[in-house]
């Protein structure tokens, strides 16, 4: 990406999400005006020099306005704008962003946008964008960068930075080690608080999200932490060993990120130490990384429930079809099987036509019940609240809820079926079918995510499709089967 603006960027706006939305609206307006001018110019006679001049001037004016607008925003807001634009407009805006921002923006944008931006940059631009990133930040981008770019950037790193980069890249994607950073303040326990204060004053700035200073011994083994608040209000002559807190949470690099996120939520942490097997301090995990991880995991879970993978909302139709088709075909097969089950009761439906209108209610209520149960179970699994010790109680609770709700809803449905058909027995069949299908929905809502989690799979992936298959097929079978037995 090439940027010719010589001015040093000055961010005039504060950190406000509304600024990004307003800027996006302004970008849309400028791009729309630019397209209007291009359309007018193209209607002129081909080769009209005046039209070409007008188009060039308008382009320059719009580019200048867009560049000024973008360079006043935080990189996170620019990332939001890029994610909200179709591919061609995204590339046009990306060319206008200052090169100073490239690395930060690539870190902020979603993976599917990052890939499209990197594809437009040559090796020299990518090296310039990433050479000033920290080791943990470079590790985030490395999977999307060409190997030659990573190799070139590594040449400019110190031995310590290269070791850090290799360490972060060696950890599993959803582990603490893959999320930790190395920028932190550490002190010895045998110095006074006055020494610590003098040391801090010599630093140009504290690492982001520094709420505590880690205390280590001469072998870098973690001893405790000293909060900034305690450092400021305590007597400067007090030793660190007397002021530090030894009861702190520490994490191992191979700990699961889900468990670390739950710990941050439970204990209201801003940062936590990461130690190796020997107890040596090797990094820290901060709340900003945890929040990003939780957001990405939540997005993936939402998509997984519908059988989708992460997708650029402006991606070409062909790639969108490849993403969405597999589970839709599965859904087609399951829906076809449910229809086949219903067709086996053609004679029953032919004699009692009202059944054709009521059976969709039975299937729909069962599906909704299962969806509620499944959502709760998936969330409980995500935060580690489901275990062998409480599983039986949890299953009993969900079945009891389904039974009681089914009794109440079944009475309403029975009264409705009786009212529109004039047959009391049909109302009873409707009630029984609803209760049974709601129990089935709850059972499937528990079973599917638990089994997928047990075998190391995403518990949300395609769960809604499987649930719909069960509640539709068995709902039709139960309702029409009961109707055949008791009404004919």
Automatic annotation (TrEMBL):
Gene Ontology molecular-function annotations: magnesium ion transmembrane transporter activity; metal ion binding
Localization recorded for this chain is: Cell membrane; Membrane
Q: Which residues cross the membrane?
A: 349-367, 399-420, 426-451, 463-487
Xref: SMART domains: MgtE_N
Question: What keywords were assigned to this record?
Answer: CBS domain, Cell membrane, Magnesium, Membrane, Metal-binding, Transmembrane, Transmembrane helix, Transport
Q: Which part of the chain is the CBS domain?
A: 244-300
Report membrane topology: Multi-pass membrane protein
| Location, primary (coarse class) | membrane
Q: Which GO terms describe its cellular component?
A: plasma membrane
Instruction: Give a short account of what the protein does.
Output: Acts as a magnesium transporter.
User: Whom does it interact with, and what assembly results?
Assistant: Homodimer.
User: Its family?
Assistant: Belongs to the SLC41A transporter family.
Protein's name in the database: Magnesium transporter MgtE
UniProt gene name: mgtE
